[in-house]
Structure formats: structure tokens, C-alpha cells
Design goal:
By secondary structure, the chain is an all-alpha fold. The chain has two domains: 222 residues, Orthogonal Bundle (Citrate Synthase, domain 1); 100 residues, Cytochrome p450-Terp, domain 2 (Orthogonal Bundle), CATH 1.10.230. The chain has a three-stranded antiparallel sheet with strand order 1-2-3. β1 and β2 form a beta hairpin. α5 packs across α7, α10 runs antiparallel to α11 and α11 packs across α17. The longest helix has 26 residues. Bound molecules: coenzyme A. The site of coenzyme A has 17 residues, from α16.
Length: 401
Amino acid sequence: MPPLRGFLRSSATSNDPLKRHRTVTDPVLVPGLAGIPAAKSSISFIDGSAGILAYRGHRIETLAEHSNFEETCFLILEGRLPNREELQTLRSDLASRRGIADSVVQTLGSLPKNGHPMNGLQVGLATFGMTRPKVDVKDPASVREAVLCLIAATPTIIATLERLRRGEDYLAPPADANTAGAFLHMLNGEAPSAIAERTLDCCLVLHAEHTMNASTFAARVVASTEAGPYTVASSAVGALYGPLHGGANERVLEALESIGGAVNVPDWYAQKRASGGKVMGFGHRVYKTKDPRAHTIQRLAGELFEAHGSTPIYDTALALEKAVVEDLGDKGIHPNVDFFSGIVYQKLGIPTDVFTPIFALARMVGWMAHYEEQHQDNRIFRPAQIYTGAHDAPWVALEDR
Ligand code: COA
């Protein structure tokens, strides 16, 4: 019997359905489903106390150093590293699928300019799906085609949203660039420097997959209904948007800017703690030590600052990390991936509210791998609830209320 069943102990004996609910022993509620497995998965692995993250058995530090986003996509989707020819095929498969139809560009252009790009991305992905051939969710080849289109075109949708809201025109994706290069090129209207491209490429590797987090769970729940990949992608973007999940990177930068310098950190932090607020970019449901991705992003930041000059906000970040870890480190509160990513993105010239869409761009790979995995042995998600409302409520006619 699966362990989850143990949570639902029933002592029901009555055949009367109206009485039976009163004889069921209350199941145990685990808030946030913390620690409850929702699926078996071979895609990624985390050891939260040792600070380990691996995709298909490959440690994230190794991938960040030696791999690139396209190779990591192959690894996550196929479960193994590609040979040279397979990697080249995936690169050209993605490059040839980056374009979006005029109707998608028009829809993106019609959205309110002051709305958040994560909402725009949800609309963009759903609209993009409407321009694509219908997906047969029972046919792995049909699903894989949609998966490749989503991974390839998400950068185009995000860059186009940004260009259109700045009053610029749609820029077609460059023919032979990799994902990071194509995205930065479309965003800024010119090919990026080698270090900018490599930095973003590495950030995409770091964000590509992360076990059963909220947006991945959302993706699997929607996938379990046999909805197609475009609908699943748009739903997962909605789940990622929240400040407790992907939206934290944007909030981190806002907080660091509002602190106004490393010297102000002690006062700012004391006030934050006194108000009971959480410090964005710290803490994690699984990691009880510093997020391994945060170490790598710090290394990338160092390289970027060497090439393009440092930023005072980084000193504020280091002072804040010291203050938080001194105070809460014993409780397992350390920087997570979002703490340093915004600093790097800002240095790359990316607007603050585009940080979370970039997270989505990378995580699309993980969501889609989970989509395919969910369909290998699908059963629609239908958890239980603990009903806390009234029973046998008396009916009072409208005129008597
Ligand atoms: N700042 C200050 N205290 C924090 C904290 C933070 N960022 N994150 C957790 N804590 C504290 C909580 O106040 C709580 O303290 P208590 O036991 O005294 O009540 C304890 O640590 C456990 O926190 P909780 O929110 O229950 O943990 P969780 O596993 O449900 O949540 C997060 C994990 C990520 C949602 C949470 O750490 C958080 O909100 N972090 C800030 C947002 C963020 O950076 N999100 C990106 C995650 S990659």
C-alpha cells in the first residue's frame, strides 16, 4: 500500500451516504504537503541538508561548469547526455522553432503595457498554443514536437513582450544563436558579448529543473487531466509567479535597492525582523543549507563584475547574507537561488520584472520533462480534503431570511 494511503484512516460502517461522512476518522493534514511524495520521478534529486542538486544523476556544479542549456535540455528530456550529433540536432531543432506567428505578436502587442510580463507570458503561451497543430497527448512524438516548440519559443515571447511594451517592433529570432544568445539578442536588438551570453546560459542551466516544487506540481496536476503542453506551460507560469516561488528574485532586488547600501543593512534587518516579515531570497522548503545554485551564481557574478565592473548592490547583498545567516542560520535559513540571480540579471541589463519570466524560460524544460513523465503512468490528481464546514444545514426559504 502506498504510504499516502496511511493518512486516510476510515472507520466508516454506515451505508447511508449522509451519515458516512461523520464516521470517517479525520485524515491527517500536512500543510503544504511538506514531505508527501506526489509522484515517482527520475528527473532530478535534492539532498537538502547536504546542499546537493543533480539532474539525472549529474551534479549541478558539474553541469554549470561543463554543460550548456541545450545539452542540459537533452539530458533532462532524454535522461542521458547527448553525443555531438544529437546535441547539434537539438540545437537546430530549437533554432528552427523559435519564431512566433503574427497573431501571437499582435496579441502580445494588445496587452496593457503596465501589466506584469508573467501575466503576458501566460497569455503568450496560451495564444502560441492556439496557433500550433492540435497535440495528441497519447502520442509521444506529437507531445515532443510541442515540447520543443515551447522551449524554443518562450524566449521569443518574453523578448517580444518586452520590446513591444518599450514601443519597439518585433524582432525575429537570429537564425543560428543558442537559447541564451537568441534571447539577449532579441531583447536588446544586438548580439550579446560572449561573457553575457555565457552568464545567462549558465543561469538557465541552474534554473532548468528542481524536483517537485509548486510550479512543477501545478504542471503535473494540469498534465494529469490530459490537457496539452501549451495549457500546462501557461498554468505552471501562473504558479511560478508568486513571491514565495519564482517571484522572489524580483522582490530581492527591490529590497536590496530600498536598503540603500551595506551600511544600512543592520537597521533594515532589525526592522524587518521586528515586523515579522520574511527576507526574500532566503529559506527553502528543502535546502537547510546554502542553495548550491547560489554558490554558482555568486561565482558567475564575480566573473561578470571583473569584466563589466562591480555593482554596489552586491555589497549590500553580502552584508544582508551575513546578517540573516548569523541570526537564522541555525534554523536552516540561508540564501536560495533567487538571492543572487537578480543581481546578475540586472548587470546584464535585464529589467527587474523580466527576472521571473527568465526563470520560466529555463524551467520550461523541467516542466515539460515532468509532463512527459506524468504521462508514462498517468492518473488524474484528486487529493482529499478535510471538510470543516456545516452538515445538515436547514433550508430557509428566501423570503424568510
Ligand atoms: N526570512 C525570515 N524567516 C524565514 C524565512 C525568510 N526568508 N524563510 C523562513 N523563515 C522562517 C519562518 O518565519 C518560520 O519561522 P518560525 O518557525 O519561527 O515560524 C520558519 O523559518 C519556517 O518557515 P516556513 O515559511 O514555514 O518554511 P516553508 O518551508 O513553508 O517555506 C519558503 C519556504 C521558501 C516559502 C520560505 O523560506 C520563504 O518564504 N522564503 C522567502 C521567499 C523566497 O525567497 N522564495 C524563493 C524560494 S526558492
